[in-house]
């Protein structure tokens, strides 16, 4: 097979179907950019889960005088010094516990004033209305139920709270957005495949005389199909290049510069450039193989010479 002939046929085909080829490139670029973005989003969510779950704590809130009057779980009265010592001792004896920190009512009041200083309720609260608590960092954050079972319902304990529950809604929302991106990516891939099929069919029809002559002189089916497949693969390669540019530019302007999300949201551990560069090869592989295979199977059905 002469490479020069194949290359010349690719050029001819691209020029004849310039508008449709451009549409294929754009649709492939957008669909692959969404694919890459969805893959990076999944890595980001996983990274955030690992980052935050490693820092979350289990909070054991202790009963105060106000709770004893209003909360059934504190019906036996405010926590006593003996009960506090026993709770701390039992926590430190557990193998799953990493560290135990005691927050007094005065410290809780100070933290509340710092975090909600603009709230109209800030001035109405007093330190004795705040709850003492033990903040427990676990070696494995998934072992919350062990702490919950051991300390819920104890005398002096008002509530055992797992901070992971506060993050679950956020991660559910992020996962939902990721699935939405995957759904849109799938729709764009279908559009790209339909455009590729139609482009190949039009190209095969417009060059049916040339392919007929090639068949008469003994050219093999693969030799006849190769220029069409190469055209589709080349268009897919350009689309993959466009997707790579979109991902790199998006990563640069959204996180490193421009909107600078890394500065606006310093508590989020953003994934680095290495994660992006690991995704790009897959983008190019899919960008070349998807159109080439679509063209191959289309030609088997529609290239009748």
TrEMBL record:
Residues 184-304 form the ABC3 transporter permease C-terminal domain. InterPro entries: ABC3_permease_C (IPR003838), FtsX (IPR004513), FtsX_actino (IPR047929), FtsX_ECD (IPR040690). Keywords: Cell cycle, Cell division, Cell membrane, Membrane, Transmembrane, Transmembrane helix. Its main location: membrane. Residues 56-160 form the FtsX extracellular domain. GO terms for biological process: cell division. It comes from the Bacteria. The keyword Cell division applies. GO terms for cellular component: plasma membrane. It is a multi-pass membrane protein. Belongs to the ABC-4 integral membrane protein family. FtsX subfamily. Forms a membrane-associated complex with FtsE. This is Cell division protein FtsX. It comes from Streptomyces carminius.
